[in-house]
Every structure is written in structure tokens, then in C-alpha cells.
């Protein structure tokens, strides 16, 4: 079903303020140019001022939602489980505080009564006007990103299938990587070529590697940053996501959906996500000459 398709979850950032500003600007322009709902009938105030106040309601309500909801419900706002349906519900929820804000503002500007009838009227108008553009926007964005990342993944797959270039200056890299716990009491030594990925797991890092031709997972209490330091100097390891470091030599296939690239590693069932901000860098490192070990 369409509603179950993966969709990128935009984390709160400065960019969020830019998007909400554009939404507020659209509200302002519609009210000034089209003058719907009798907005020009307020006494003792200008049309531009009233339109600016309604736009301000949109900006403040949407901004608060964008930052507050992921903080209040972190288990719901998880990108690996974010879908078209969840994105649409998230966008629809933005309309609720906007409705209440416009209801109160209209009472202040025009003296409209504060009762259930006017509230439901505002709710009806807001959702009728907003539902179709929101749904269309979500679907178009999902299709655009899906095509973009599928095409990019196909190009990366082609790069993987090309003969591996040989570095003119081979380096003597360690045959094994030693991961040490935070308190220094535990160590895990793994052959470099057997490591598939390292990921964060609360206060631990999880190392997935191959032992006796089987994938083995081991937890060590430390941070992913410390694990990255242990892997430093080995160009075959790449931090593809804020929670994952992968062995580039273990990549068998690259796929893509609306959330970005996914890496299929040799002997690993799960797909490893790639941060959208690192797509270009991943393509770059896959085309670079690999160090001969």
C-alpha cells in the first residue's frame, strides 16, 4: 500500500524554520491577493496587518510542532519506521493548532463568537483547504526521491561491478582491528576482512563480523566515535550513517528508496542505511583506488 512506503523523516533543524516560513508566506500571499473569508472587513486595522497575523499563527504553530513532537514522542518519530502514511498524519496534525490559533485570532480581530460551531467551521475549512495539497505534496515527494535514489543506487552498483583499481602505493595495514571497552578491561580482536559493520547500541557498540563462516555479533561498552578511532587509517571502513560504520569491501549490492541508499553486505541479512548527506561521499569513496592490504 502507498501509505506503508518508506518516507524520509526530516529531523528538526534550521531548515525546518525555512520551510515553515515558506508556508506562512504562502498564507500571507493568499490572504492579501485573494482576500477570502472576509478578511478585509475588520475595523480599524489594515488588510496587510491581519494577513501578517494569520501568517504568524501558521509560522509559530508549525515551528513548535516540528521541534516539540519528535522530542515528546521519540519512539514514534524514527526514520527507519517512517512511512508515507505517518508523514501525512504528521502534516495533518500541523493543521490542528493552526485551526485553534486562527479561531482565537478571528475572535480578537472580528469579534467572532468562541463556540463549538465556529471552531468546527474553522476546522472544516482548514482541513478541506489543506488536505488535498498536503497529500499531493507527500506523494510527489515520495515518488521524486524514490526515482532519485533508485537511479543513484544503480550507478553505485555499476561501480561495484567494475574491476577494482589497484593503488600504486600499497600500505601495510594491520591484519586485525582491536576494539577496547571504555574501562579498558575488555578487548576484541577481529581480522580486518571479517568485519562487516560497527553500530551504536545505547552505551555500547555492536561489532558484526564473520567467524567460522557465520555472522557473529559482539557488544562492547564504548562509543561509536571510539570505534571509529580504532578503525582510523583503514580506508575500507566508512561511516555511512550516524549509527553505522561499514566495511566497503563487504558491499555486495546498493538499493534505494525514498529514504536514501541501503547497503547489502556479504553474509548480512539486514540492510544498512546511508545518511542522505553522505550519498555523494559514498559514491566518491567507491570510485577511489582501494588500498591493497
From TrEMBL:
One of its GO terms (molecular function) is DNA binding. It holds the Pfam family LytTR. Residues 179-288 form the HTH LytTR-type domain. This is HTH LytTR-type domain-containing protein. InterPro entries: LytR-like, LytTR_DNA-bd_dom. The chain crosses the membrane at residues 21-39, 51-76, 88-110, 122-140. Keywords: Membrane, Transmembrane, Transmembrane helix. The keyword Nuclease does not apply. It comes from Niastella populi. The keyword 4Fe-4S does not apply.
Amino acid at each position: 500500500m502507498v501509505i506503508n512506503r518508506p518516507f524520509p523523516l526530516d529531523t528538526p533543524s534550521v531548515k525546518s524554520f525555512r520551510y515553515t516560513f515558506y508556508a506562512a508566506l504562502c498564507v500571507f500571499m493568499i490572504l492579501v491577493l485573494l482576500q477570502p473569508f472576509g478578511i478585509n472587513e475588520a475595523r480599524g486595522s489594515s488588510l496587510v496587518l491581519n494577513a501578517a497575523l494569520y501568517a504568524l499563527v501558521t509560522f509559530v504553530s508549525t515551528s513548535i510542532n516540528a521541534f516539540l513532537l519528535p522530542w515528546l514522542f521519540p519512539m514514534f518519530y524514527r526514520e527507519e519506521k517512517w512511512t508515507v502514511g505517518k508523514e501525512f498524519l504528521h502534516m495533518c496534525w500541523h493543521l490542528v493548532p493552526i485551526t485553534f490559533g486562527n479561531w482565537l485570532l478571528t475572535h480578537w480581530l472580528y469579534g467572532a463568537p468562541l463556540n463549538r460551531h465556529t471552531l468546527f467551521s474553522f476546522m472544516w475549512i482548514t482541513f478541506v483547504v489543506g488536505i488535498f495539497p498536503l497529500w499531493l505534496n507527500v506523494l510527489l515527494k515520495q515518488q521524486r526521491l524514490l526515482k532519485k535514489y533508485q537511479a543513484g543506487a544503480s550507478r553505485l552498483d555499476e561501480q561495484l561491478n567494475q574491476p577494482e583499481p589497484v593503488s600504486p602505493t600499497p600500505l601495510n595495514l594491520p591484519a586485525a582491528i582491536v576494539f577496547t571497552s571504555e574501562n579498558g578491561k575488555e578487548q576484541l580482536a577481529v581480522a580486518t576482512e571479517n568485519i562487516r559493520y560497527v553500530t551504536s547500541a545505547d552505551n555500547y557498540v555492536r561489532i558484526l563480523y564473520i567467524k567460522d563462516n557465520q555472522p557473529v555479533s559482539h557488544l562492547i561498552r564504548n562509543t561509536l566515535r571510539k570505534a571509529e578511532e580504532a578503525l582510523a587509517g583503514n580506508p575500507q571502513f566508512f561511516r555511512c550513517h550516524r549509527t553505522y560504520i561499514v566495511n566497503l569491501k563487504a558491499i555486495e549490492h546498493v538499493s534505494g528508496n525514498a529514504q536514501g541508499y541501503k547497503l547489502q553486505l556479504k553474509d548480512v541479512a539486514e540492510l544498512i542505511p546511508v545518511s542522505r548527506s553522505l550519498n555523494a561521499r559514498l559514491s566518491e569513496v567507491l570510485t577511489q583506488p582501494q588500498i591493497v592490504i
